[in-house]
Amino acid sequence: IAGITQAPTSQILAAGRRMTLRCTQDMRHNAMYWYRQDLGLGLRLIHYSNTAGTTGKGEVPDGYSVSRANTDDFPLTLASAVPSQTSVYFCASSLTTMTEAFFGQGTRLTVV
Amino acid sequence: DAKTTQPNSMESNEEEPVHLPCNHSTISGTDYIHWYRQLPSQGPEYVIHGLTSNVNNRMASLAIAEDRKSSTLILHRATLRDAAVYYCILRDPVGLTFGKGTHLIIQP
């Protein structure tokens, strides 16, 4: 059982470059989320999707975009990376918007 | 948004019970109380959740006050592997709003 998979595990990216973080779940969960975690700031919600075809903005959406073309995939795109986007990114999913969430192992992104 | 308050850190001895408190005085009648934990270098992991009644699962127990303004996560017999940051969260449809959590330290 794979659960929720993120790729890549880590990445060093030059500032100004475009990058897509991948997230796939095989649990047929309706809702998916992207968080970033920074030291001292905890986990903050970037974008969410309550069901395939819909997305919404979280607490810190600027500089990021998402799409939800199908149930399984929820990619996060940085159109033009900046050093302040250096962080650990976690994708999560839940069956509904009110049930428990399952998290991936994270992507460590360094923008230089 | 409803918020929760937790102690920054707690310390316990291995093989002893641990009671992690959480205050949520602004909770609404439909808010579920969720607990997650995050081990070092890992993503958050679901522990337990409840609405009004106390709940038990293989990982922990959740005791919810009668007025629902507070709850307590109970680890019945802590091990070194339980050392983590524990988050108490009021679930809402947008997502999980994480606070700073309680850093649980387990002494051997």
Walkthrough of the structure:
The complex is a heterodimer of chains A (112) and B (108). Chain A is mostly beta strands and 112 residues long. Chain A contains no helices and eleven strands. In chain A, strand 9 and strand 10 form a beta hairpin. Chain A is globular. The mean pLDDT of chain A is 96. Chain B is built from no helices and nine strands. Chain B is globular, with a radius of gyration of 13 Å. The mean pLDDT of chain B is 93. At the A-B interface, strand 5 and strand 10 of A face strand 3 and strand 4 of B.
Structure keywords:
heterodimer; A: about 110 residues; mainly beta; seven-stranded mixed beta sheet; 11 strands; about 0% helix; B: about 110 residues; five-stranded mixed beta sheet; four-stranded antiparallel beta sheet; globular
Point out poorly predicted stretches of chain B: none
Tell me about the largest β-sheet of chain B. 5 strands, mixed
Structural class of chain A: mainly beta
Q: Record the strand order, biggest sheet of chain B.
A: 1-9-8-3-4
Count of DSSP E strands of chain B? 9
- Per DSSP E runs of 2 or more residues, the count of β-strands of chain A stands at 11
Question: Outline of this structure?
Answer:
The complex is a heterodimer of chains A (112) and B (108). With 112 residues, chain A is mainly β.
Helix and strand arrangement:
The complex is a heterodimer of chains A (112) and B (108).
Chain A: E1 4-7, E2 10-13, E3 19-25, E4 31-38, E5 42-49, E6 56-57, E7 64-66, E8 76-78, E9 87-94, E10 101-103, E11 107-111
Parallel strand pairs in A: 2-11
Antiparallel strand pairs in A: 1-3, 3-8, 4-5, 4-9, 5-6, 7-8, 9-10, 9-11
Chain B: E1 9-13, E2 18-23, E3 32-38, E4 45-50, E5 55-56, E6 61-64, E7 70-75, E8 84-91, E9 102-107
Parallel strand pairs in B: 1-9
Antiparallel strand pairs in B: 2-7, 3-4, 3-8, 5-6, 6-7, 8-9
